[in-house]
Amino acid sequence: MKLLIAVECNSEWWEDAPTYFFGEIGKDEIARIKELAEIVKKADVYQIEEFDGTGDYYDLSVCEFVSDKTPADSVKRLDDCIPTRTSCNTLKVQKNSFKFSAFPKDGCGEFELNTIDIPLTVFDNYNDEQILMGEFPC
After folding, report:
1. Percent share of the chain, pLDDT over 70
2. Residues 56/57/59/63 CA torsion (nearest 10 deg)
3. Which of 3, 38, 90, 114 lies at a C-alpha separation of 20 to 30 Å from 108?
4. Residue 55: CB atoms within 10 Å
5. DSSP letter string over 43-59?
6. Please, which residues bridge with residue 51 across strands?
7. Could you tell me whether strands 2-9 and 131-133 are parallel, antiparallel, or unpaired per DSSP bridges?
């Protein structure tokens, strides 16, 4: 499953902050996310975080090329894009959703990148070739 998901930056001072995240997750990663969600429920905690190298963050305007193209066309266009260098890439799993986060490499801890929350229900009809596109900030 390919994910093309909107990114939010917690700082208004980073003008060219990445606007979207692209990553691919397979059956093993999906099983791990579901397992962590069960642990969150049983432990009655807000979320579990673990380091995860899935995906890249891009700082191009998604709205310029996604609005009138298919998801597959948008993913192909990523070949021409250079991802933002990040560190501390993290998977954050809650009871009913998950998201990815990261900090810019050699940057300030004030600039955290977070994808929008992705509901666990996206896995109900898993398809290896599926491209899931989240809402985009325009």
Report:
1. 68
2. 90
3. 3
4. 23
5. HT-S-EEEE----EEE-
6. 90
7. parallel
